[in-house]
Amino acid sequence: MLADYLLTELARPDGPAGPDAGLPLNRRLYEALRRAIWDGRLGPGDRLPSSRELAQDLRLSRNTVVAALQQLGAEGYVVSRVGSGTYVHEQLPLHRGASQQRPRDDGHRLPGLSARGQRLTAEPGAAELEIQPFTPGTADFGAFPVALWQRLQNRHWRAARPEMLDYTTLGGYGPLRRAVADYLRVSRSVRLQPEQVLITTGTQQSLELCARLLADPGDTVWIEDPAYWGAVKAFAACDLRLHPTAVDGEGWVPPAADAPAPRLIYVTPSHQYPSGAVMTLARRHALLQAARATGAWVLEDDYDSEFRFDGAPLASLAGLDEDGRVCYMGTFSKVLYPGIKLGYLVVPLGLVEAFRRAHYDLHRPGQLPLQAALAEFMELGHFAAALRRARQTYAARRAALLQALQPLLACTGVRLSGAAQGLHLCLHLPATVDDRALAATLAREGLSVRPLSAYCLQRRDWRGLLIGYGYAQPKLIEPSARRIAEAVQQALRATPAPGGQR
Known about the structure:
The chain is an alpha/beta fold. It folds into three domains: 87 residues, Arc Repressor Mutant, subunit A; 235 residues, Aspartate Aminotransferase, domain 2 (3-Layer(aba) Sandwich), CATH 3.40.640.10; 116 residues, Aspartate Aminotransferase, domain 1 (Alpha-Beta Complex). It is built from 16 helices and 14 strands.
């Protein structure tokens, strides 16, 4: 029974929902229910017991149960139907049960898929379906003001005019586009008008729009190496040719003079994914100059720009752009929660009308009541407050992780990057270390770090681990980091040095 499973999880001291996890009781119940969904004990469409029944079976207060269910609903795991109950969302990704694992690309074609479909579904080795404490790119949504958010949504649903229930041809809800424009002017020095903002479902949709409207099949995209796999898949879906460009400690490295001329240049300058490098001002100017010289469009994915801990943020590329060649994109998923599925794309003025038409024709955008709630959330200062709280929380976790990993830095060939910004660190290792095997070893112990080599397109000189701290609970950071350090040291001892010497 579900109640028996939940009682076991809540009592297990070493589990994410156990009493030693250092979490409030409602958060522990949320973790236990979320794990039940991912493990397949609760399948898509399954009805959950009522909050009253769960409270009685688990001997918890009803407020505790309601808070856990509200958090699951806010993140998209469950949906509530008035007069019917609460159900597991029917469109969640595949569960992690043994019989439901995603097939790996073992060199055989999957029946029925096109050649492009084969490329898109070949697993790169970087993606994970289950969120674990050290998963890179993952934030902690436990502090999100669910009750306030629900009140805002309910108010806009009650007041929704008929036109708010229709598609939008204007690129999104007007007040939200204005709020995003105001936020970007102040926080990222982007020069823009509200009409340049399109509200999308997130960075992936923004990338798809840019790839479809600004390039033709066979055109070249300069893309960072190592690369964000979401961008790789988006460009592959549009049959674009990838030209990997190296990344170093200063971010994007200008390619050789004989590199093929690009139609698009895709970069993550604020916190390069996955290395964490922050592109220097000199490199930013060099990139804009290259775009001007080649007539290319720059796609600026301002990944993790909200979370900078050392020094003032550098100006965005869009803020430095004098030629109107930068398309700037961001998302609300880190500060709010991923299930909100809202992001923004800022396009040059000359492209606004074309992008609006294409966005409508391809995607039929809507969700105007949700957008209205988010606009008010920003206008009333709640977004800024949530961002301040998140920065404080993540800064403390980052400091704890850096402190715990310090002994590793005395090892030859080991260094850290990406510590100044974002929600993960990149631990660089000697090129002789098998980082995929090392990550697999740690994964078996519940530590979901990722191998740096899995993100590399051409280069073979980078090995390492991506270690996220956004979802890691403070009391787990030190012991978990100590285990990571032990595994790394074991891998270093087992790896032959150059020339065959250990």
